[in-house]
């Protein structure tokens, strides 16, 4: 099939930059570990309150400057909904839901994940700056969807 | 060539029936959209206890599914009748059957949404559970569209039989590709509705596998956008060259790009599920790579369009690097509306690259940025192209002509649309980057300082949305005029001819076994293992919830 010379040049550079781009994305994902939240852990959505760590939701220290933040989402609230994190902490956020699908977005950060019944989702972030972040539900879950929120304060260590 | 110049009166009626429903959906869905932007500005509340999410569901279903599917099927019936000859009585009857099944399905779905029994949005994410009537209605819409698809396949087969060894007319070929794409992808949504959602909403089964239902939905949900886009591409490739007085740059490249869209638009649904649990990130990355393959036919299309424009301008004596731009028929709404749509596709495509990027998706996922994105792709590029097509298609089918006044109004309409969308989609993109969520009523999240930052953008959205609603009123005036009041006369259904310099089209493009085979193979590669994983490692299923 005949192709115009200019079209060949156009497609050569277009497809070339496409593959360069996909390589960069791939290296970032697999060599540097920048994968989207894709936790494979399952849980019985009707027994969340009895299943550790979600039977005692909240911030748990797991190591030197390392923490786990376990959060339960349900219509239309997060438990807990007032969270204090010491500055510099590396926090693994685990979230699950007791009922329908929810979103978990920490505004102004890269923490943004789907929370689906039967699954735990997880993302790790280091909080290097003090400040206040709003957590909100960004996946439609019912009438009170836009009222579903929580607050995170990153504070200086005492 | 056994092309007919004019669509047969009986086929025209079938096409027009679809177009009427499409524009009624535009009127109602547009009104719902206006209410949404007003609520979201924080300055307005819905009267009489109307639920914001009922309006949102109405908007999505009417504009995302009804307007698009009805217009596309109507346009394609006209296109195959125009290029492959008048439909047989059998094909036409099947088309009418499809039309009525779709219309009854739409009415049923709309009924259950409006009485508040189905405020689950058009993505109907389980375990939110709608009334069974909602799922039955949507099933009828899909089944009706299949009947019309079969009518088009039969018509194409009849043409091939009558013209052995010949290349089929380009518009007919493209319509067939689009209906194959639609058939293959809508199997996914049919599966989740018929096997999972419907039995569950009727109470036959208690629980449902959430991740499987979402995966089946997105197996359908992304090709759906190409089902919207390909008819716009048909108009760009075949109709626009004729309108400006030029030629189709290359018949074979047009066919190649359609085949590439067929192959690469389906095994890609995971890019809507990038931040979801339960799917291994390596499989997500594979589908990201496949998603990006549609960049290739998109680049080919962009090249073809501008090559056609430049060749035409130069044939009229244009000089200099961009002199040909001045030779284009800017005063002709049939050209101007789709052209503005094309321009909007440049930022729209760039935004799409961001959304589908493995990691970058996390920044914008479920923010109103995404809403801004598809209001550029669907609600500007595709919709303005459809409007531009309506300006010749409707008078052609109703035996009327578009007056100069209406043409001028259509130019104004296009400008109004572009300005409204710049405001609305532009502020949606910015607010989304600041974290404002999509699919949400107005909220300050407990006076969060971060949420208060979004309010100026939300007011700009309301201004843009109001301008767009004026655009909808204008297009409805034009369409009503063209359908019922414009002076009687003959309007051309423009079908471009291929440039003399283009080479003969190889027949391999119509080797359907090959292309469908590759399509199915890629789907199996992309989905089999993760799908088995989902079922084998499934958590306990979910009961239904009605939380609105």
UniProtKB/TrEMBL annotation, chain A:
Location relative to the cell: Cell envelope
InterPro entries, per the entry: Ba3_CcO_II_C (IPR034214), CcO_II-like_C (IPR002429), Copper_CuA (IPR001505), Cupredoxin (IPR008972), NosZ/Cyto_c_oxidase_sub2 (IPR051403)
Keyword tags: Copper, Metal-binding
Protein name: Cytochrome aa3 subunit 2
Catalysis performed (reactions): 4 Fe(II)-[cytochrome c] + O2 + 8 H(+)(in) = 4 Fe(III)-[cytochrome c] + 2 H2O + 4 H(+)(out)
Coiled-coil parts of chain: none
Principal location class: other
Domain Cytochrome oxidase subunit II copper A binding: start-end pairs: 55-158
Top-level taxon of origin: Bacteria
Function: Subunits I and II form the functional core of the enzyme complex. Electrons originating in cytochrome c are transferred via heme a and Cu(A) to the binuclear center formed by heme a3 and Cu(B).
Recorded GO CC terms: cell envelope; membrane
Originating organism: Paranoxybacillus vitaminiphilus
GO MF term set: copper ion binding; cytochrome-c oxidase activity
Keyword Metal-binding attached: yes
From TrEMBL, chain B:
SUPFAM superfamilies: Cytochrome c oxidase subunit I-like
Transmembrane segments: 20-38, 50-75, 96-115, 135-157, 169-197, 217-240, 252-270, 290-312, 333-354, 374-394, 415-435, 455-479, 514-532
Record-linked PROSITE patterns: COX1 (PS50855), COX1_CUB (PS00077)
Keyword Membrane attributed: yes
Residues in Cytochrome oxidase subunit I profile domain copies: 13-540
Keyword Aminoacyl-tRNA synthetase listed: no
Gene Ontology MF term list: cytochrome-c oxidase activity; heme binding
Top-level lineage group: Bacteria
Primary location class: membrane
Cell location: Membrane
Keywords assigned by UniProt, alphabetized: Electron transport, Heme, Iron, Membrane, Metal-binding, Respiratory chain, Transmembrane, Transmembrane helix, Transport
GO annotation (BP), single: aerobic respiration
Annotated GO CC locations: membrane
PANTHER family the record matches: CYTOCHROME C OXIDASE SUBUNIT 1, CYTOCHROME C OXIDASE SUBUNIT I
Family: Belongs to the heme-copper respiratory oxidase family.
Protein name, entry field: Cytochrome c oxidase subunit 1
Species the sequence originates in: Paranoxybacillus vitaminiphilus
Organism taxonomic ancestry: Bacteria, Bacillati, Bacillota, Bacilli, Bacillales
């Amino acid at each position: 099939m005949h192709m115009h010379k200019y079209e060949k040049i156009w497609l050569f550079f277009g497809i070339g930059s496409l593959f360069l781009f996909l390589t960069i994305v791939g290296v970032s994902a697999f060599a540097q570990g920048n994968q989207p939240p894709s936790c494979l852990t399952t849980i019985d959505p009707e027994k969340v309150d009895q299943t550790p760590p979600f039977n005692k939701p909240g911030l748990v220290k797991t190591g030197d400057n390392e923490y786990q933040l376990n959060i339960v989402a349900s219509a239309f609230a997060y438990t807990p909904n007032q969270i204090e994190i010491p500055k510099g902490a590396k926090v693994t956020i685990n979230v699950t839901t007791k009922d329908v699908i929810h979103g978990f977005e920490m505004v102004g950060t890269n923490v943004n994940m789907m929370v689906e019944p039967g699954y735990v989702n997880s993302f790790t972030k280091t909080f290097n700056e003090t400040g206040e972040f709003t957590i909100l539900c960004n996946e439609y879950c019912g009438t009170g969807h836009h009222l579903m929120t929580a607050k995170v304060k990153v504070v200086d260590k005492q | 060539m056994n092309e007919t110049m004019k669509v047969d009166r009986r086929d025209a009626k079938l096409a027009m029936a679809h177009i009427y429903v499409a524009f009624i959906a535009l009127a109602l869905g547009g009104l719902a959209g206006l209410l949404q932007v007003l609520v979201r500005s924080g300055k307005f509340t819905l009267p009489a206890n109307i639920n914001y999410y009922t309006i949102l569901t109405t908007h999505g279903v009417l504009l995302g599914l009804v307007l698009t599917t009805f217009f596309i099927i109507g346009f394609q019936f006209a296109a195959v009748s125009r290029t492959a000859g008048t439909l047989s009585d059998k094909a036409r009857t099947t088309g009418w059957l499809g039309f009525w099944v779709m219309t009854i399905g739409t009415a049923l779905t709309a009924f259950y949404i409006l009485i508040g029994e189905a405020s689950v949005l058009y993505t109907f994410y389980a375990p939110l559970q709608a009334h069974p009537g909602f799922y039955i209605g949507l099933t009828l819409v899909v089944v009706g569209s299949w009947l019309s698809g079969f009518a088009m396949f039969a018509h194409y087969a009849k043409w091939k039989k009558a013209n052995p060894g010949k290349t089929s007319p380009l518009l007919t070929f493209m319509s067939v590709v689009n209906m194959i794409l639609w058939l293959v992808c809508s199997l996914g949504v049919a599966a989740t509705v018929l096997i999972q959602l419907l039995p569950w909403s009727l109470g036959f089964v208690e629980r449902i596998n959430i991740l499987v239902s979402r995966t089946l939905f997105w197996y359908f949900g992304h090709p759906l956008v190409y089902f919207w886009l390909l008819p716009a591409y048909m108009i760009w490739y075949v109709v626009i060259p004729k309108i400006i007085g030029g030629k189709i740059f290359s018949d074979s490249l047009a066919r190649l790009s359609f085949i590439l869209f067929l192959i690469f638009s389906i095994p890609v649904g995971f890019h809507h599920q990038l931040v979801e649990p339960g799917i291994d990130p390596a499989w997500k990355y594979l589908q990201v790579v496949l998603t990006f393959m549609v960049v290739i036919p998109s680049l080919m299309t962009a090249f073809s369009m501008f090559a056609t424009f430049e060749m035409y301008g130069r044939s009229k004596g244009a000089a200099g690097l961009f002199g040909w731009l001045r030779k284009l028929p800017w005063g002709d709404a049939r050209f101007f509306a789709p052209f503005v749509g094309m321009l909007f596709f440049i930022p729209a495509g760039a935004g799409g690259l961001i959304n589908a990027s493995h990691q970058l998706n996390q920044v914008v996922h479920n923010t109103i940025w995404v809403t801004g994105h598809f209001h550029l792709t669907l609600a500007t590029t595709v919709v303005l192209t459809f409007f531009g097509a309506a300006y010749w298609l409707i008078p052609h089918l109703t035996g009327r002509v578009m007056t100069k006044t209406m043409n001028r109004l259509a130019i104004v309409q296009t400008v109004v649309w572009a300005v409204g969308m710049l405001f609305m989609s532009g502020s949606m993109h910015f607010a989304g980057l600041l974290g404002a969520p999509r699919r949400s009523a107005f909220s300050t999240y407990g006076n969060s300082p971060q949420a208060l930052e979004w309010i100026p953008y939300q007011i700009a959205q309301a201004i843009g949305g109001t301008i767009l609603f004026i655009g909808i009123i204008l297009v409805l005036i034009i369409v009503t005029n063209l359908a019922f009041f414009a002076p009687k006369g003959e309007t051309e259904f423009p079908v471009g001819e291929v440039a003399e310099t283009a080479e003969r089209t190889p027949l391999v493009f119509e080797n359907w076994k090959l292309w469908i085979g590759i399509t199915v193979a890629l789907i199996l590669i992309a989905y089999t293992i993760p799908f088995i994983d989902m079922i084998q490692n499934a958590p306990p299923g979910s009961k239904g919830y009605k939380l609105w």
